[in-house]
Write a structure and sequence with these properties.
heterodimer; A: alpha+beta; 2 helices; B: alpha/beta; Immunoglobulin-like; 4-stranded mixed beta sheet; 4-stranded antiparallel beta sheet; elongated
């Protein structure tokens, strides 16, 4: 009887043991979008992203979320205009989801498929290269997401009747810490 | 206007030009004296086409600090870096990675590092996939983190259609303000130009009438434009920062100026029509108009170029 109980306990505890995989938390981040216009080269920076990664069965699922209104270009008028064109009041959070094989954590360059929800739309960017640098227990990830306004059905805002370029690359600099 | 107003006007317009030129050039002058150097370049593929969104990383050989960057759609990149020695890494899927072991940055100097990237057969077949839209997540793991795991409540993640409508209305009204403001420049400039034929010694009734008509047109457009700026919805919790602050401050100069100028102009017009020399408070019509024009021009410039 006792043997059966021990076996039962062992079987029931397997999922719990499997659930004890590693987790990562976003320690600090700088996300910078870049918008080009004939008269302006504007950048907006957000330091407000939050992120978490959960590794399970050799795969790590990451979620990063950042409020649209946290991007600061140094010009409140431009920020409000960007908030309007990106429908940031209606869809206040940008989310980025990705799945990384745990084995990739040893590579200096990792290629990620990113699912980005922004402005009420979802776009997938495949094989975006990021550079990975281990800094003690932390991992720094840098790269650029080749985002385009049209991917999220955003009409390019215009100034002096000239619209900004469709390309809006987002530079990413994140430091992750194991939990 | 006084008899010598035409000469004064030319001098003041010259002064306005200098102000605008200085306002335009000032940022670049400052940028060249901030104690950093620049590293720039263009990446092209074997056919000579620019390589967009390549990763460009500058690592300080002195401090180990890593500076990530990327090329734009035209294949160019640019870093503003403290003086020192750097190693460069140029990387793009589908191309062979290029390592530049040493690049020396000196204060207030620009180093240009252009490179032609070689195609990498090993990665070429499997890459540079353009963005594709799909609705399924790359991760369907039930243990994947959620917004709640990040401390973001459903209330925080939920948007507001009303707030979006307010933003839409604000943008619409400010666009109208901007367009009318730009249109106002033309009659404003024409009014200033025709002032020479309205206020000098050798003037005609036609010259004064034309000047007055253009002035009235300018004022009409100006106040219509101002209405859209003043009536545009204010967004709660927004602190005014950046060039828009100067734009708003200048409105306190050109706004009253645009009220005073026609009043003074009317008095001057009456004096000239009676065959008198413009005198008294009416002699301020020209200087006030010039100051108003300068403030208005600077207000347009302040939001037209990045400072």
């Amino acid at each position: 009887m006792l043997g059966k109980l021990l076996i039962g306990f062992w079987v029931l505890s397997l999922p719990a043991l499997a659930g004890a995989d590693s987790q990562w938390v976003l320690e600090q981040s700088t996300l910078t979008y870049h918008v080009s216009h004939r008269l302006h080269q504007s950048e907006g920076v957000s330091l407000a992203a939050r992120g978490k990664g959960v590794c399970h069965d050799g795969q790590c699922d990451f979620l990063i979320a950042v409020p649209v209104k946290s991007f600061d270009s140094g010009d409140s008028n431009r920020d409000l205009h960007m908030l309007q064109v990106t429908r940031g009041a209606q869809f206040p959070i940008v989310t980025v989801r990705t799945r990384v094989p745990e084995s990739a954590s040893a590579s200096a360059t990792i290629y990620l498929d990113l699912e980005i929800q922004f402005a009420g739309q979802t776009a997938l960017y495949k094989q975006v290269p990021f550079q990975r640098v281990a800094q003690g227990s932390e991992t720094r990830i840098t790269g650029t997401i080749p985002a385009k306004l049209s991917d999220f059905k955003i009409d390019p805002p215009s100034f002096l009747t000239v619209p900004v370029k469709n390309e809006m690359p987002v530079r990413v600099d994140m430091t992750w810490h194991p939990m | 206007m006084p008899a010598n107003t035409a000469d004064n006007w030319r001098a003041c317009v010259g002064g306005l030009g200098v102000v605008c030129l200085f306002a335009t050039l000032a940022p670049s002058l400052v940028a060249q004296t901030d104690g950093t150097g620049a590293l720039t370049g263009t990446l092209i593929d074997p056919s000579g086409a620019p390589v967009a969104f390549a990763m460009v990383t500058a690592t300080s050989a002195d401090t180990g600090q890593v500076r990530p960057g990327a090329t734009g759609t035209d294949g160019t990149y640019k870093f503003s870096l403290p003086p020192g020695n750097y190693t460069m890494r140029l990387e793009c899927r589908g191309y062979k990675t290029v390592e530049i072991p040493s690049a020396t940055i000196n204060e207030n100097e620009t180093v240009v590092l252009d490179r032609k990237l070689e195609a990498d057969a090993q990665t070429n077949s499997n890459t540079a996939t353009p963005p594709q839209k799909q609705t399924t997540a790359p991760s369907n793991n039930p243990t994947a983190p959620s917004l709640q795991d990040l401390g973001i409540t459903p209330a925080q993640a939920k948007g507001s259609a009303e707030a979006q409508a307010l933003l839409d209305r604000r943008t619409h009204m400010l666009k109208v303000h901007q367009r009318l403001g730009l249109i106002t420049i033309a009659p404003f400039a024409a009014t200033l130009i025709t002032s020479a034929a309205a206020g000098g010694r050798q003037t005609s009734t036609t010259g004064r009438d034309l000047h007055a008509a253009l002035g009235v047109t300018t004022a009409g457009l100006y106040f219509t434009s101002a209405y859209f700026a003043i009536r545009a919805p204010k967004i709660p919790g927004t602190q005014t920062r950046g060039p828009i602050r100067l734009h708003k401050i200048l409105a306190w100069i050109h706004g009253p100026g645009m009220v005073l100028t026609p009043i003074l102009g009317e008095i001057a017009f009456a004096q000239k029509s009676r065959g008198e020399k413009v005198h008294g408070i009416a002699s301020l019509h020209g200087p006030v108009a010039i100051a108003t024009g300068a403030a208005f021009g600077l207000a347009v410039v302040s939001v037209s170029f990045k400072f």
